[in-house]
Amino acid sequence: MADRLIEDGYRDVGYVHINIDDCWMAQFRDAEGNMVADSRRFPRGIHFLANYMHERGLKLGIYQDFGIRTCMGYPGIVGHMKEDSEAFAKWKIDMVKLDGCHSRPSQMNEGYIAFGRYLNETKRPFVYSCSWPYYLLVGEIEPNYKLVSRYCNLWRNFHDIQDSWKSIEMTIDFFGDNQEVLTSHVGPGSWSDPDMLMIGNFHLTPGQARAQMAVWSILPAPLLMSNDLRSIKPDFKSILLNTKAISINQDPLGFPGKVIYKQFIGQSYTKSLFLREYKIDREMSDICRWTLFVKE
């Protein structure tokens, strides 16, 4: 995937992180309590992989979980926060996602802050991605977004996105219905994350893919692809490489767009009007198509 990011032009328009999700570890820590990479999946280790990325102008992200084990049952970070943060720094990791399976929401305010501090103490710059607010909401605890935005660079609020228009539509509705809370703490270094771009997988039409790219760019959301770049079709590749959308997403002010109009047609189709308070190039309208209308 790193090689394809470079060869196909993704790196040049800003896609520079390769992020490894759950299941990268061995089933158990070593005798000293250290995380160990799965020797079959990563026979040369994570440090080698990070160096491979850095030599090519890319960055490496990795996954851990604020629990006794990860969502898929691998060793979690509880009891090992300091050691794991130091390991990530030693391996030259650039981004860490901290999930929240097999943990107690009542301990998250303290725990997520503590791990962020351990990352900072290593003196290595990390992007810190938190699932903190999502698990609080699941546990019916109101997140303190002022606190979250202070200690996390991006944070998840809603369910894991799926490769379906219905899932994307539900995510858009959640962010629109809760936008006054979610957007008030968004800005450079602090991003509310609606989860990954499904563009280039199996179940979106090109129009639906353009709609997701447009909405994610306007929110503005972290643009993290979840696809196989070896088999992506040209229509979807062109959407992901659209520099008009990316320039809106990467606006230096980080100003979030908001829904100002919403209309239900039938039982499932939602038409929403988003507004950004500055001029957007006319060519953006081709990306927006019927799902999204942007005021010029």
TrEMBL record:
The transmembrane segments are none
Which PROSITE patterns does the annotation name?
Answer: ALPHA_GALACTOSIDASE
What keywords would UniProt list here? Disulfide bond, Glycosidase, Hydrolase
Could you state a single Gene Ontology molecular function term? alpha-galactosidase activity
One cellular component term from this protein's GO annotations in UniProt: cytoplasm
Q: How does it assemble?
A: Homodimer.
* PANTHER family on file: ALPHA-GALACTOSIDASE, ALPHA-GALACTOSIDASE/ALPHA-N-ACETYLGALACTOSAMINIDASE
* Protein name according to UniProt: Alpha-galactosidase
Source organism: Nephila pilipes
The coding gene here is NAGA
